[in-house]
């Protein structure tokens, strides 16, 4: 598992999610652990390392 840190697009606090390092792509919606608003994620991985990510508010 990889712990991915990012800034919440609602409250700007630093939060994290866990991503399975065996995946090549993670897409999903998770609630911010600080403000509880929903956040949409797309994270691309290669060889167990994050190579790109996109985080945005859920409309």
TrEMBL record:
Domain of life, per UniProt, equals Bacteria
The cross-references to InterPro entries, in alphabetical order and at most eight, read: zinc_ribbon_bacterial
From the Swiss-Prot or TrEMBL record, give the protein name.
Cysteine-rich CPXCG
Native organism: Hydrogenimonas thermophila
| Organism classification | Bacteria, Pseudomonadati, Campylobacterota, Epsilonproteobacteria, Campylobacterales
């Amino acid at each position: 598992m990889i712990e991915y840190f990012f800034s919440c697009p609602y409250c700007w606090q630093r939060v994290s999610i866990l991503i399975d390092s065996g995946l090549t792509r993670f897409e999903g919606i998770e609630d911010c652990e600080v403000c509880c608003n929903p956040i949409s994620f797309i994270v691309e991985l290669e060889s167990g390392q994050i190579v790109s990510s996109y985080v945005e508010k859920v409309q």
